[in-house]
Design goal:
- The protein has about 260 residues and is α/β, with parallel strands linked by helices.
- It has a single domain, classed as NAD(P)-binding Rossmann-like Domain (Rossmann fold), CATH 3.40.50.720.
- The chain is about 45% helix and about 15% strand.
- Strands 3-2-1-4-5-6-7 form a seven-stranded parallel β-sheet, sandwiched between helices.
- Helix 2 links the parallel strand 2 and strand 3.
- It is globular.
- The N and C termini lie far apart (about 50 Å).
- Bound molecules: nicotinamide-adenine-dinucleotide.
- The site of nicotinamide-adenine-dinucleotide has 29 residues, from helix 1 and helix 6.
Length: about 260
Amino acid sequence: MTGRLKDRVALVIGGARGIGGAIADRFTSAGAKIALADVEEEAGEARASALDGIFVRTDISRPEDAEGAVAATVTYYGRIDILVQNAGIYPWTLIENISPEEWDQVFAVNMRGTFLAARAALPHMKAQRYGRMVFTSSITGPHVTSPGHGHYSATKAGINGFIRAAALEFAGYGITVNGVEPGNILTEGMKAHRSETFIRHMAESIPLGRLGTPEDVANAFLFLASDEAAYITGTTIVVDGGQLLPEGNDFRINPE
Ligand SMILES: NC(=O)c1ccc[n+]([C@@H]2O[C@H](COP(=O)([O-])OP(=O)(O)OC[C@H]3O[C@@H](n4cnc5c(N)ncnc54)[C@H](O)[C@@H]3O)[C@@H](O)[C@H]2O)c1
């Protein structure tokens, strides 16, 4: 196999569909060997077998599952070079209606899951003196937000802080830690949890004129997971079609 990730072993958590599915596809086409971890067994198994990889049923909010996904990867392939923690949930609920249980669930998957994944992969990457960790953040939280995203925004801003802390702690072992901040990406999750009106209005607010595709985001993951990004750590790449740029709503110019 040739490619930018030739023979690298990558564990993609939350890789059954959506952005994570595209990351697994892109990594494989760049030469990586793939382990997929996800709560969705059927879709995960199907994608893993199409990519000639392995599937590990994993609820990343559970420490034993995080350890299990990394252990299965190392047992099967003998190492783990790349860790992607992409699993995330984004229920739409106004702050006044968020129950403490829902708050904890969003934190358990999005933030605790990111910490647990990093903690599980660290000893192996440390021993190899090599590792690439790439986490899915968002523009929502670190830069912008909208109503209904209180818990979600807090987790994604928190992930960026964790990326910086982990990058600093792991740098001495040859491990880089970075993140990708997608804008609005048309995935199964987005279609299920956001209305058509939300999606249409969102497209109108994006200078490049469309929502992103999972492949748009996967390309940034590929770069950060590759050796081309060897000197980059503790940072994030925004993939948003220019959505963060306008000072106000009236940003379109008429070329005619
Ligand atoms: N779609 C967007 O516009 C967008 C924008 C910014 C950030 N993100 C982030 O990108 C990531 C993927 O989003 P998506 O839109 O592809 O979502 P999605 O719902 O389409 O896919 C998410 C995947 O994660 C899995 N998952 C959920 N909970 C899990 C758990 N506890 N353990 C393991 N796997 C679990 C799901 O089964 C699914 O396969 C999330 O972290 C999300 O917050 C998405």
